[in-house]
Amino acid sequence: MFRLRSVLDLLVEKVIIVGSGCAGLTAAIYAARANLNPLVLEGRQPGGQLSTTTLVENFPGFPDGIDGPELILNMHRQAEKFGARFSYAEVTDFDMSNKHVRVNADDEWLETEALIIAAGASARYLGLDDEEKLIGHGLTSCATCDGAFYKNVPVCVIGGGDSAAEEALFLTRFASKVYLIHRRDQMRASKIMQERVFANKKIEPIWDTVVTKYIADEKSEMRAVRLRNVKTNEERELEVACVFVAIGHDPNTKAYQGKLETDPDGYLIARHVAESKHAGVFIAGDVADRVYKQAVTAAGSGCAAAMEAEKYLSESESGA
């Protein structure tokens, strides 16, 4: 594992990549193959959201599917094979006041000619007991990723916005019943999405209700949830094979807030393809993607970011 240098011995890196999910690792593969010797700062959750996904069936090239952690490990090895270096360091600050951009990783300032930010986004969960243990075992935030595993069984979706409506509608292709649990007495989703939800006989809304506990079976798989009506305080159990949490994502962009251009929800804004507004800073994956949030689209944006970074470095060296 690469060891961070002391700031006294600091050399300017060619490329630093923040994040080691599909976007970051794809960027690492392309940057390494271009002989840019990239340094990848993996953060506290190497592999990103895919590291908690049991089986990925929609990534091209794997007709029988592949475990999320295995896919990430393969990409990691591929990047290492071409010369990428890795550190578990987490970026907590960012500075672009000098000629080159700098990031603070575990209290060490690192300077680089090109920075690719692929730090991903974190799905919001409820913060209940045993939540982390159940992710990938009947608890997920991605119906597209995991819905096909729950054929002919009841599931529930937590949320009331467009994302929750989309998840619920998608799940009706597989599940025998989809309970839509919302803490209010009406959805926040757009009118057309609400009409689609209410027209689907497989979807049953449960209003004014919150989930207060996940209940696992003897195999530590989701068996049921405990519900509480926020108006009456009445509690009951609802048997479901999987809980899909659709209450939003938070992009991992805290270190860049107020320094790079973001939208009102904190997602970084790419000016052209993968370029930020600041020269030498490039963006890939879920830090900027509030629509698709798929492994394959993240990988594509990682490729674009690395190619744009290579082009930028080449032009900088030639004085173009």
Summarize the structure.
The chain is an alpha/beta fold and 320 residues long. Helix content is 24%, strand content 26%.
How would you explain this protein's 3D organization?
With 320 residues, the chain is α/β, with parallel strands linked by helices. It is 24% helix and 26% strand. It has helices at residues 22-33, 68-81, 131-134, 143-146, 162-171, 191-199, 295-318, and strands spanning 13-18, 39-41, 85-87, 91-95, 101-105, 108-117, 121-123, 139-140, 154-158, 177-181, 203-206, 209-216, 222-229, 235-239, 242-245, 249-251, 281-283. The strands form 4 sheets. Strands 1, 2, 3, 4, 5, 6 and 17 form a 7-stranded mixed beta sheet that branches. The chain has a 5-stranded parallel beta sheet with strand order 8-15-9-10-11. Strand 1, helix 1 (22-33) and strand 2 form a beta-alpha-beta unit. Helix 1 (22-33) packs parallel to helix 2 (68-81).
